[in-house]
Write a structure and sequence with these properties.
2 helices, 5% helix, single chain, Porin, mainly beta, 280 residues, 16 strands
């Protein structure tokens, strides 16, 4: 039996089905710099874990590498992806230094509800709500480079991604569950840019605006989304995140199914301890 039944049962124990369409949360951060707590200590081999509980998804993450976790490190990134609409995984290599992050890996996601769509210049939301095509089993080879620039009180940030989507039958389009766009594989390009302000005690609150454009050479037109992102540091290891970018322009009319609600929940981070930096 396929992994779907198990993943769905596990998810039902943690979240109720929401009315707003949801998808696999993108396997990247929103572009905001990590809390200062992770700058402490010295570089060392480590194992780190992240658990993100969102509105309609659960996203655990395991990282094994060398450096200061979540700050300056390189290693292996593993992420199961579980939502109310499907389940899958992501695995790859990742390197991070202050204000710059690079990852590359493979993602696979099997939806519970959506199927492949017959090729068309324009797709409607009803096509997603009434599945009739073959079941999708796509694999995505992808790479993302993100960064930010620190200035007093905030700073700009950006993300650029390249995705190669395979294992999709010819003559069909795919609703890409992580990017939340309908594509004609294989190539997809993404660019996001924005500005975030930091304020509050210890700059615990980050709030910003962002705009992104997604280009799929196999289809005419492009997708533009814009909205807000934010984060509130609750403790040194716990924060709350949001990422809400509705569609501004698209060749399709799929409503909220095309919006980016990639983050809407709380995130807990942990890592094996290392030797503390000596005071001079």
């Amino acid at each position: 039996m396929r992994v779907r039944a198990f993943a769905l049962s596990a998810l039902c124990a943690t979240a109720a089905h929401a009315q707003v369409p949801t998808s696999a949360p993108p396997p990247h951060d929103s572009g905001l710099p990590a809390p200062a707590v992770w700058e402490r200590g010295v570089s060392r081999p480590f194992v780190a874990a992240t658990l993100e509980l969102g509105w309609t998804y659960v996203r655990p993450e395991l990282a094994v590498g060398f450096g200061r976790p979540f700050h300056r490190w390189m290693g292996l990134d593993l992420k199961p992806l579980v939502t109310t609409t499907g389940a899958g995984f992501y695995g790859g290599l990742r390197g991070s230094v202050p204000f710059l992050d690079l990852r590359a890996g493979v993602r696979h996601f099997e939806p519970f509800e959506h199927t492949l769509l017959r090729e068309a210049e324009h797709h409607q939301r009803a096509e997603l709500d009434t599945p009739s095509g073959p079941e999708p089993e796509p694999y995505s080879i992808e790479s993302e480079l993100s960064g930010s620039i620190a200035v007093p009180g905030g700073g700009p940030f950006w993300l650029a991604g390249i995705y190669y989507v395979s294992n999709v039958q010819q003559g069909f389009h795919l609703y890409e569950e992580s990017l939340k766009v309908i594509i004609d594989p294989p190539w997809v390009f993404r660019l996001r840019a924005g500005y975030a302000w930091r304020f509050g005690p210890g700059d615990a609150v980050s709030l910003g605006v962002a705009e992104e454009i997604i280009e799929n050479p196999g289809r005419p037109g492009y997708v533009i989304r814009a909205g807000v992102i934010g984060r509130v540091a609750i403790t040194e290891h716990l924060d709350a995140q949001l990422s809400l970018l509705p569609v501004i322009h698209s060749p399709d009319s799929i409503g909220l199914a095309g919006a980016d609600f990639g983050h809407l929940g709380v995130r807990w981070r942990w890592a094996t301890a290392g030797a503390k930096r000596r005071r001079r």
